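From the pipeline queue, job 12 of 40. The input is one protein chain; the requested action is below.

Action: predict structure.
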Amino acid sequence: MRIIEQPELERVLSGEIPRHVGAIMDGNGRWALMRQTERTEGHRAAEAAVYSSVHGALNLGVEWLSLYAFSTENWRRNPAEISFLMDFSEWLLHETRVEELRELGVRIRFVGRLDDERIPQRSRDYLNDISARTAHNSKLQLVIAFNYGGRAEIIDAVRTLMVDAVDPQTMTEADLEARLYLPEMPDVDLVVRTSAEHRLSNFLLWQAAYAELVVTDVLWPDFRAPDLVSAIEAFRRRQRRFGVRVDDLCQEARRCRRADDAVARRHDDNEIGGRVGKAHG
C-alpha cells in the first residue's frame, strides 16, 4: 500500500480541494475472485477502503463524500449476495466504526428508495438509528447511496413536483433540486471510479452533471487515502469550463491578471509616494 508522503500532502493541500467527492465502489467481486473466495468476502473487505477514504477526506478538508453502496439495479444479483448486502452492520457500517465516525464529527446520511419493502425492516431501523445518532455532526457529510439510482431520484422528484402542482411553464431547476433526496447536497466536483470502469452507472446523475471523472485500476477493497490524494491531484490538473469556451476562460484569466497587476502597481505607487512625502517632510 502506498503511503502519503508529506511533500505530496502539502502540495495537495496548497491547491483547490473538491468540496464534494463521489466514489463508485467497484471491484469487490473481482477482488474476491482473484483470491478464490466468496463475493461476500470482497464486500466485507470494502470496509477498510471506506474508512481510509473517510479519514483521507477529513484530513484533506473535503466536506461531502458520497459512496455508491447498492444500486436499484443490484436487486438482479444472487439472492444470497443481496441478503448479505442488506446487513450494513456486517460489511460496511460496523457498530464500532459508526461510533468512531461519530466521535470524528462525521454525519452519516443515506439516499435512495429507503422505504422499499424489499429492504428488511431491521436494516431500515439500523440506517435510521445511525442517521439520528450522527445528525448533529458537521465536519464531514458521509452519504451512502443505498437502493439508489440517479434516474429513480429524478423520477421521484418529478412525481413530487406533480403532487405539489408546480406549474410546468414556470418550473425551474431549483424547483426540481428542492425535491431531490438531499436538496442541500452540493453538486459533485469529482467522481472516482475504481476497477478501471469508465461509466457513471446511474450514480448521482443530476448532481454530477459537471463533475470530473477520475478512473483508477485499483479495486475498491484496495483503495486507500493515498489513492484519494492521487485522484484529487488529477482533478486539479483538469480545466473545468462549465460550458464556457477555453478562449473565454483564457481571456478572463488575462483580465484577472491585468487587474491584479494594476492593483499591485497602485500599491507600489502609494508606497513610493508615502516614502517621498515622508522624506520631504
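Job complete. The longest strand covers residues 140-148.
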